[in-house]
Amino acid sequence: MTTRTRVKVCGITTVDAANSAVEAGADAVGFVFVKDTPRYIDPEEAAAIMFSLPPFVSAVGVVQDLDVDQFCALEYSCPAHTMQLHGKEPVDVVQACGPGVIKAFKYEDATIQSQLTRWAKVDELDAILIDGSTGGTGEAFEWAKLVPHIQDFPKKIIIAGGLDASNVEEVIQTLRPYAVDVSTGVEDDPGVKNSEKIAEFCAVVRKADAS
Hints:
By secondary structure, the protein is α/β, with parallel strands linked by helices. The protein has a single domain, classed as Aldolase class I (TIM Barrel). The chain is about 35% helix and about 20% strand. The chain has helices at about 15-25, 45-50, 70-75, 90-95, 110-120, 145-150, 170-175, 195-210; strands at about 5-10, 30, 60-65, 80-85, 100-105, 125-130, 155-160, 180, 185-190, 190-195. The strands form 2 sheets. An 8-stranded parallel beta barrel has the order 1-2-3-4-5-6-7-8, surrounded by 6 helices. Strands 9-10 form a two-stranded antiparallel ribbon. It is globular, with a radius of gyration of 16 Å. The termini are close together. The relative contact order is 0.17.
């Protein structure tokens, strides 16, 4: 049976970029709510884009190191379908923010197994996102090293970091993740999405699924 890899295009800041992702077949668009980053968007502006999305396309809000009150206030401003916690949030905060959350962290040889073990036990988590950096810098990691760690892992795995149309097929063939997350790999400049790159990325994902 063919497995369909979901696609999230992250760092969306305009309606045009969101539409390009939708037209290319992306399953989700991501809004970065981390201030002083090149893809930051005001939650109310993001909400306006989110409400323009067609059915079955999800919005994901990306946050970092918020406490529970801050998280709830932001979620009220932009009630995204899923929230992605991309900082050093402790387990109790993640539990309080769930369900409907993704926990993201950077791949490191020394900590990958302990990270996976910790978050596998958190029922409120919908998925784990493994990045090549702490987020938004387009750094990849050695995907093959992750293979033994995620065999029989109980939660959905999302891969991010340095992905683009030239390497996403290798990622999918190596890891068969639930989803791939792209941002810098479909941009002309930080925060400036390229519709042709988005379309090419999504097309390569579909090709990899069929292989």
